[in-house]
Design the sequence.
């Protein structure tokens, strides 16, 4: 495992570029799972290499339900990333998580229904643990970076991943609050699950753009207001990336998440499908060679 950092940045709504990136170069990465959302932008900030992927494609072309999350994670793995920082716009299910606040997520509730949730399946079965779905080390760096960039940040929250692309009904929003969800979005699942299967430590910074529709006295969620808040959040998010890179230790010590597949594969070697193994060459090649 590399002793140097190479951070994959998945930019969601509101983060479509990294201004501070040095030596930027867009490159096409082909995957066994189809095309990722866009080309990947390679570059560096100082001594740290970064790979940026606009989750919805440049110009925000791709709907949440149509994202090819498997191709996105596979492409970042093929690009040599050691860790992934996802940055996403989110709605708030709690009064104290006001628009403009940044939230470093530590748990998820997955309510998506139309998206392939795993790299594994018939021919090569694996079960990774998602009890603690984010990397605590990278999440701590992310929270400190938001604060350094001047953002108001909350550490720890449960993210409800809904299918979309429509926003919630009020009944759904109230139910999610009862379940203990704190914020809501449309893109973190199965992204976080796939990152875990690819042995890529993952952290998520959520940028609150609005209150979800549980507040009866408030207006419904409107895209125009969301876009306005996204612009303000995006400026801090770009500064956060630079602050994160500046705070990273010179050497990347190994993470337990780098080797989660050591204890996840269940299909016996003689029953593994060669065609399935070929598709797993990047995300699981370390344990399948």
Sequence:
């Amino acid at each position: 495992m590399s002793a140097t950092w190479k951070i994959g940045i998945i930019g969601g709504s509101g983060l479509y570029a990294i201004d501070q990136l040095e030596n930027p170069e867009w490159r096409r990465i082909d995957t066994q799972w189809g095309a990722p959302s866009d080309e990947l932008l390679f570059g560096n900030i100082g001594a740290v290499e970064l790979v940026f992927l606009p989750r919805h494609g440049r110009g925000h072309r791709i709907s949440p339900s149509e994202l090819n999350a498997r191709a996105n994670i596979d492409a970042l793995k093929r690009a040599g990333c050691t860790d992934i920082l996802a940055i996403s716009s989110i709605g708030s299910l709690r009064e104290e998580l006001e628009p403009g606040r940044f939230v470093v997520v530590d748990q998820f509730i997955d309510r998506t229904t139309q998206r392939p949730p795993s790299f594994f399946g018939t021919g090569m079965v694996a079960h990774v643990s998602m009890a603690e779905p984010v990397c605590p080390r990278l999440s701590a760096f992310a929270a400190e970076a938001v604060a350094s960039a001047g953002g108001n940040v909350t550490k720890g929250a449960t993210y409800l991943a809904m299918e979309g692309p429509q926003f919630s009904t009020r009944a759904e929003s109230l139910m999610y609050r009862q379940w203990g969800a704190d914020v809501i979005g449309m893109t973190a699942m199965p992204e976080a699950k796939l990152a875990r299967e690819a042995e890529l430590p993952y952290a998520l910074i959520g940028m609150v753009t609005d209150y979800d529709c549980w507040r009866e006295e408030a207006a419904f969620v409107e895209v125009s207001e969301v876009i306005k808040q996204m612009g303000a959040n995006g400026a801090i998010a770009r500064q956060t990336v630079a602050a994160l890179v500046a705070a990273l230790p010179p050497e990347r010590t190994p993470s337990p998440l780098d080797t989660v597949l050591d204890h996840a594969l269940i299909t016996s070697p003689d029953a593994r499908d060669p065609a399935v193994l070929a598709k797993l060459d990047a995300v699981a090649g370390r344990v399948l060679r």
